[in-house]
Amino acid sequence: HTAQYSALLKEIVMRIARLAVSAFAVASLCFSASPAQAQSDKDIVDTAVEAGTFNTLAAALTAADLIEVLKGEGPFTVFAPTDEAFAKLPEGTVESPLLPENKDQLIAIRLYHVVAGSVTSDVVVTLDSAATVNGASVSITTSDMGVMVDAANVTAVDILASNGVIHVIDSVILPPAGPTAVESTSWGTVKDEAVR
């Protein structure tokens, strides 16, 4: 079954990447926030760490063994919650998933913040949802008030890295209940496919 799930996950990631490229080609709406920044020579992880406002996210990525993946070729789009976003969670919510016995839960949550492909803000505003590497989709809502990913407000956009783009969000988003790509197959398989 692992081979089937691995092949299915790879096919899903490739379809998402092709969809992102197609959507980018036809996108004509502009995001109301800042324009895209110049391409960075730093990867997503180094870009986030350098910003200094994603320390909890960096700790969670380390505990989930995702640093290597997000330093990989990509491209990836990360909806990155700030330290303030993590601080809004109920007490114990951050610490519990960081425990070794909860690693699968932490991986599922972290991968729910990642979309395959480099999806810049001009494309994001044309979408109603986006499939995450976790296997579930985030909802995307655009209004006069701005853009929301699930219940999180997008507060900064198009922080470009050498292997993708970061959009900053003001809340941690949680995947819906039910099996995800991570829970349906081994983490080693998901990690191997993401690195390829």
Structural class: alpha+beta
Total beta-strand segments: 7
Could you tell me the radius of gyration in angstroms?
Answer: 16 Å
Give the fraction of residues assigned to helices: 40-55%
Widest sheet: strand order?
2-1-7-6-5-4-3
Give the count of helical stretches.
10
Report the span from N to C terminus: 20 Å
Order of H and E elements? HHHHEHHHEHEEEEEHH
Topology overview:
Blueprint: H1 2-26, H2 44-51, H3 55-63, H4 67-70, E1 76-81, H5 83-87, H6 95-98, H7 103-111, E2 114-116, H8 121-124, E3 129-131, E4 137-143, E5 146-149, E6 152-161, E7 164-169, H9 181-184, H10 187-195
Helix pairs in contact: 1-10
Observed structural traits:
single chain, 196 residues, alpha+beta, seven-stranded mixed β-sheet, 7 strands, 20% strand, globular, disordered C terminus
Can you give me a brief rundown of this structure?
The chain has helices at 2-26, 44-51, 55-63, 67-70, 83-87, 95-98, 103-111, 121-124, 181-184, 187-195; strands spanning 76-81, 114-116, 129-131, 137-143, 146-149, 152-161, 164-169. With 196 residues, the protein is α+β, with helices and mostly antiparallel strands.
